[in-house]
Design a protein that fits this description.
Layout: H1 15-35, H2 38-43, H3 68-90, H4 95-119, H5 126-144, H6 146-149
Helix pairs in contact: 1-3, 1-5, 3-4, 4-5
């Protein structure tokens, strides 16, 4: 019987395994986006609602701009980036694959930060923290390890 570990990327270091792990998690997030609005609404929670005095906070509706279409679009985008990253995890020494994976994190970071700081479709909290931390960590890690993995 084969061990699950046999299917992990075989390149040295932890970066390929990290990219693989993030790809698998992203595929799960992609499926969630198709099945329910809830997880995507946690990421894109909208601006903080103003609650009139005396009104219980749990009775105020969501300010999330997420629609069924936008959730599915987000799920599709997430699946595409997961596939690119999955290929990169197994081909980490191939410059074009490394660059493509790196760019997926640049786009993700730019997207989430602009939705927070410019467009206001999200705010800092549990929903945004995960994607922001993953994108930032991955970008820094990939940038600092570029010469180790990419053989010109």
């Amino acid at each position: 019987m084969n061990s699950v570990l046999e299917y992990l990327p075989s390149s040295e270091g932890w970066l390929p395994t990290w990219i693989f792990f993030i790809s698998v998690v992203s595929l799960g997030n992609s499926m969630q986006a198709y099945l329910s609005l809830g997880p995507t609404q946690k990421v894109y929670c909208g601006s903080k609602p103003s609650i009139p005095a005396g009104v219980p906070a749990n009775t105020v509706g969501s300010t999330s701009p997420v629609t069924p279409l936008s959730a599915r679009t987000f799920g599709t985008w997430t699946a595409i980036t997961a596939i690119v990253r999955l290929y990169a995890a197994y081909n980490i020494n191939t410059k074009p694959m490394y660059e493509l994976a790196f760019w997926t994190y640049v786009v993700a970071f730019s997207h989430f930060m602009s939705e927070w700081l410019i467009f206001g479709s999200t705010r800092w909290g549990k929903g945004l923290a995960g994607p922001a931390i993953v994108a930032t960590t991955s970008l820094i890690w990939m940038y600092t390890q570029w010469d180790y993995y990419v053989k010109a």
